[in-house]
Amino acid sequence: PESSEDVVLTTPSKLTENTNDFSSGPKDKGNGSNGTNNNHNSNLAPRTLLRTLSKLEALRNLLPSRDKMETPGPETSDEIEESLPLGPYPMVSSKQLKRLQARSLKTVYVHDWPLLLETVLRNQWEKHASGRGFSWKCIPKEVLRAKELFLDASDGKTLCEKRPLGHIPCGMIVWLVTIVPPTYYDSDTDTAGIRRIVMVANDIAFQSGSFAVPEDDVFSAASELARRLRVPFVYISANSGARLGLSVEVKKRFRVALSETNELEYLYLLPEDYEELMRLGVRLSVEPRQEKDGNGETRYVIRGIVGAPDEYLGVENLRGSGLVAGQMSKNYSEVPTISVVTGRSVGIGAYLNRIGRRVIQTDDAPLILTGAGALNRLLGKEVYSDNGQLGGKRIMVPNGVTHWCTKNNYSSAEALLCWLNYVPPTVDPLRCCPRVLALPNYDPVDRDVTFMPKGGEAYDPRHLVCGVGDRLGLFDRGSWTESLEGWAKSVVTGRATLGGIPCGIILVETRMTRKHDPADPADPTSASSFIPQAGQVWFPDSARKTADALDDFHHERLPCFILANWRGFSGGMRDMFDEVLKFGASIVDNVRVYNCPLFIYIPPCGELRGGAWVVVDPSINHNGVVEMYCDPTSRGGVMEASGVVEIKFRENDVRELIRRSNPHLAALDHQRLRDEENRLLPLYRDVAIRFADLHDTHFRMQATGAVRGVVPWKDSRRLFHAKLQRKLKELSVAVSMVEAKEVGSISEGVRKIEAAFAQDHPDIPWGTNDALHMQWLTEKVELNGVFLSGVSLLPPSPAISLPSPLTAVEEVTRLTAQCQGTDALENCFESLFEDENMLKAAMGAMQRIRDRAEKVGKLTFTEAEMASKPE
């Protein structure tokens, strides 16, 4: 395969043409009219004839006249040029043939992907510059650089930049891609940050993109590179699954022995064929056999075929598929992963996409395990029309495999770069360091949230995030990107930014939705059905969607906001059978391990009750990262007020309330008292509900410590931005304490920070004044080399082991080793010894080092050697 540098040489004009080729939708040609009156229809044929005749006349005028062709005479240069004979069409290059082959399979040639990404990225830069009013001079000359990597032939496990000698082509291409996103541009300094990704792609023009041992080795090496660099891993999928084959050399030489009854007896090789196969290195198991009949020739009966060293025919490819499946699973657990399904993906190719979890699927790119043709042969009839019926967007979007579905490959590239914006450039298993983005449209943090939900009215929960019309939402305008839109619609998941900080978001649908259960063409008795799902309720699919979203955000190292508005879980027979209990428990599992900031917020007029509260309560988390807040109009409790009244405020209690509130009823006789109570009963039932509702208000939630504080919806943007910044700083300090072995866990570090702040500010609870907390944390980090080393926890924690001198030496050595060159090391020490205490300690240490050197010298050298030893 060609290197990626060959693709970059395309001119800008051709770049645009190639980009237009990626769109798969039909284009309108002409301004045809359907003709809505009879006069137009009657004149249509003559007009068409006249138009055709005029075209023929124009073509005739382009040809030289008969007289001019027959009369010899002096020829001008123009005439000579016109009369030159047409030569053959130019030969089509191998690269163009591969492009045509990929296009016939409804995908993009693999080496065009860097060019496609560069085109999309440059268009994003232009939109960004226009949106912010910047000059186009801010756009870098090189917005993307893709360096193709090759498997090192010496060990077969690592990647190198130069194509090694004897490199054997394979159907897996790897690039280390450097990107300059427009969201990383700093207008103050006129500089733009960069990020890197490892991108792996199937070459569908090579063995149909199938997976064999060489492809598996390249994929495995690329996975290890991404994990070592801590950068996102991108897989461009277009393949035909694990490779299968037959030994070509044996196929050309084997013969068939038939029995006397004309039945197959065995397959064999002649001696000369067997010797030739041995010379070629083809391995097979044979049994020599001397034929008694005929000419008495020796035959080598074939018992098993292994094949040539460079042939990958079966189980070794399956073993390699297991290798890449394990690598992809490890990738997901350590670095952000995403797959772009740009062509058909079969078998292990489909599994790799799902194992990597986040999937961008192009319309004409099915994800299948077995092709439609094979299934039809198995069923004995034409059941499935094409592969799209098995794994196209109508299947993979509603079942939650596909996160984003796009119309063409250009849109897939846009979706890929959009997702990369939210993911930090590098990830750390403990730290949460999202990159603050510069969005095309600036949205100030210090503004009100003007979209206001009304109690009792259903609304689109997305408006809480991005607003609608001139009513603004909580997060930055234009930053919302939804994922898994077609699956489990009673929960909405996506990503947005708050003051430029990327966040994962989980919302609750308040309106009625419908779940579609399609019919199976292979089962004539099945029928399509639609199952209604009420709003504000967790169903099995929406509980699974919530758990998966938390898992994805956690591995992307993103803060998360859950705008919780659930009344509980659906516990009907169908839902219990569909494992709602299992998926609800998965939410608990993912909340427990989350170690980035996680905010639970009950929105205005929202409610959080019963099991829905339980699975997101902050006490589940063991890292001290979850904080819960509520709006003043929100409610929280075990059951809704009406349900509580039915159990705890029965009719007798209501009648007693009536008599207590109306003392004059005591003078009535029994019958008239009963009639009056019956008349007042509906009113006082509402009073009882109102009384029960007062137990679910924000006053009680805050007083009992169930929520950390009350955040009015109108002020939620500025308040949550401050809380998010404070929590990121707090967790950063806590992780530093863990790395310095001052504490044993993040939660212990968080508790130690809160205890230290309480000593300095006993009257201000932690989390109530975020500006003060940020200032205090910043000052502590700047002033203390070892943060909060003298603070004790209540209750006391296990003894904290401070770093030993040996550990400190190792850490300093590790850090100074990162300085490249002598100058950088000298500058490092110069800055280090600006501190007076550090300088004193260093001078004292130098004196002791000199004394020790003199003692060692006296013990080691003789007097003559000491006299001759240089000063």
UniProtKB/TrEMBL annotation:
SUPFAM superfamilies referenced in this protein's UniProt entry, alphabetically: ClpP/crotonase
Composition bias of kind Low complexity appears in 34-43
Q: Where is the CoA carboxyltransferase N-terminal domain?
A: 88-435
Q: Name one GO biological process term.
A: fatty acid biosynthetic process
Span list, region Disordered: 1-47, 62-88
A Pfam family assignment: Carboxyl_trans
Q: Where is the composition biased (Polar residues)?
A: 10-23
Q: What is this protein called?
A: Acetyl-CoA carboxylase, putative
Q: Which organism is it from?
A: Trypanosoma cruzi (strain CL Brener)
